[in-house]
Amino acid sequence: MKWNVRYFVIIGLYLLNLSCQKSAEEYYNSAIEYNNQKDLNSAFDEINSAIEIDPNFAAAYFERGKIKFRIYKYEQSKSEQIIDDDLKLNWDTVEENILNDFSTAAKLDKKLASEIYISLGNINFSMNNYQQAIDEYRKTIQIDSTNKEAVINTAMCKSYLGDSKGAKQILDQMVLNDPGNAESYYIRAIMNLEDNSSNYLPCEDLMKALELYDKNAEYFYESFIKNWNLKDNAEKLISINCNG
Questions:
Q1: Cα(first)–Cα(last) distance of the chain, in Å?
Q2: Residue 3 CB burial class (10 angstroms; 0-12, 13-18, ≥19)
Q3: Residue 216 gets which letter from DSSP?
Q4: Between the CA of residue 74 and those of 88, 117, 121, 122, what are the distances in Å?
Q5: Structural contact between residues 158 and 134, judged by C-beta atoms closer than 8 angstroms
Q6: Can you tell me the distance from the alpha carbon of 172 to that of 49, in angstroms, rounded to the nearest whole number?
């Protein structure tokens, strides 16, 4: 009888332990939260746990690649802060690790391809590798020609490379493809303010953006810039550049 009691106690503890273990998805969600809080070491640990539990978790590999890059950039700006030795990697090694994670993610889930190309483009953009960034954004645009992030960032890269004509062509095409979208005009306006000495086209576009602005619409800039509002910013730019 004593043996049976011990047996059931052991089984009970085992089942309790299982119920307390987090799933791969829970580790993944936890990693996202830590990443948003800029606790990159914890995010890295959590995403590794997600992959350890589920080696076929495509989104986890993709997220880990992005976290690795954020850690690298953080180390460059805060080099005096101690980070785990296994995260202290030079760029060549970091890049290889990121590409391996992205490649694994793409093989496991082909639907992630567009997002992966965007991330690779953004990584190259942040490293001032503008032509490489354009090449990655182009792959996204081939999959989805309406991807505003890829289109806008391509135009910005061309502008940084001194190809203002190429940047303008991209922006003009963006407006033609989406003539009812306030943001298309707004983006073309702010990118032409520096290049157009008369300011006529930017002012015209800013006013068109105000005319088309829809408070219920989802705009690219508003989605990732906190407390940013297209309408308010268009009005400010008009008051600065278009009154006189």
A1: 96
A2: exposed
A3: T
A4: 11, 22, 19, 16
A5: yes
A6: 46
DSSP classification of residue 119: H
Contact, 45 vs 52, CB < 8 A?
Answer: no
Structure token digits, residue 77? 């700006």
Cα–Cα dist 61/54, whole Å: 10
- Return d(Cα 21, Cα 43) in angstroms, integer: 18
SS3 of 31-72:
HHHHHHCCCHHHHHHHHHHHHHHCCCCHHHHHHHHHHHHHHH
The H-assigned helical ranges of 127-229 are 130-143, 148-160, 164-177, 182-192, 200-212, 220-224
Half-sphere exposure of 197 toward its Cβ, with a 13 Å CA cutoff? Answer: 0
CB 28 within 8 A of CB 46: yes
pLDDT string in tens for the chain (244-residue length): 455 655 555 555 555 454 457 899 999 999 999 998 889 999 999 999 999 999 999 999 999 999 999 888 887 776 544 455 555 557 778 888 999 999 999 999 999 999 999 999 999 998 999 999 999 999 999 998 888 889 989 998 998 998 988 988 998 998 998 899 998 899 888 888 876 555 567 889 999 999 999 988 888 776 666 677 889 989 998 888 887 5
In DSSP notation, 88-137 reads ---HHHHHHHHHHHHHHHHHH-GGGHHHHHHHHHHHHHHTT-HHHHHHHH
CA 149 to CA 23: how far, in whole Å?
Answer: 33
pTM: 0.75
Is residue 105 classed as helix, strand or coil in its secondary structure? Answer: helix
